[in-house]
Amino acid sequence: MLERLTKTSFAEQLNSKFQLFVEADTAVEVELVEVEQRRSTPKQDQFSVVFRAPASVPPRQGVYKMKHDSMGEFEIFLVPYLREQDAIYFEAFFNRLL
Fold first, then answer.
1. 3-state SS class at 69
2. Which domains, ranges and CATH numbers included, belong to the chain?
3. Residue 46 and residue 34: Cα distance in Å, rounded?
4. Smallest Cα–Cα separation from 57: which of 82, 92, 93, 94?
5. Which pLDDT does position 40 carry in this prediction?
6. Are 30 and 17 in contact (CB under 8 A)?
7. By C-alpha distance, which of 91, 7, 75 is closest to 46?
8. In 3-state terms, what secondary structure has residue 40?
9. What is the pLDDT of residue 50?
10. DSSP E strands: which ranges in the chain?
11. Which of 51, 52, 56, 57 has the most C-beta neighbours closer than 10 Å?
12. Running along the chain, 98 residues long, what does each successive block of 10 average in pLDDT?
């Protein structure tokens, strides 16, 4: 499953909507707003993704279930890092050995 969560697969969905499950049966709509290449080497791929969520989402880091029309369902570790009046931003880092 993790092999399909690549920088390219996220970049293809930039600015699209995902469902973020804040509880097992409660999802909120979030938007993928950034996909950023991080320092990579021939043996290691690093990138990050940022989701914009409604400000009402609790700012908790942890593993969240997500769902997307094209990418399907997956779990991802998200960390809240910025709160604005109307939004909270969550970031996930990927670090893969090639």
1. coil
2. 2-97 (2.40.30)
3. 14
4. 82
5. 81
6. yes
7. 7
8. coil
9. 98
10. 17-23, 26-37, 44-54, 62-68, 72-83, 87-97
11. 51
12. 83 98 95 94 93 96 96 96 96 92
Show the tokens assigned to 41.
């080497």
Query: How many angstroms separate the CA atoms of 33 and 18, rounded?
Result: 11
**What's the one-letter identity of residue 86?**
D
* Nearest in space to 22 (alpha carbons), one of 61, 71, 50: 61
CA dihedral sign of residues 90, 30, 58, 88: positive
The C-alpha atoms of residue 82 and residue 52 are separated, in whole angstroms, by: 10
- Cα–Cα distance for residue pair 25/7, rounded to 1 Å: 28
User: Can you tell me which residue has the tokens 């890092």?
Assistant: 81
The pLDDT value given to residue 13: 97
Phi/psi class of residue 62: alpha, beta or left (left: φ > 0; alpha: ψ in -120 to 50)? left
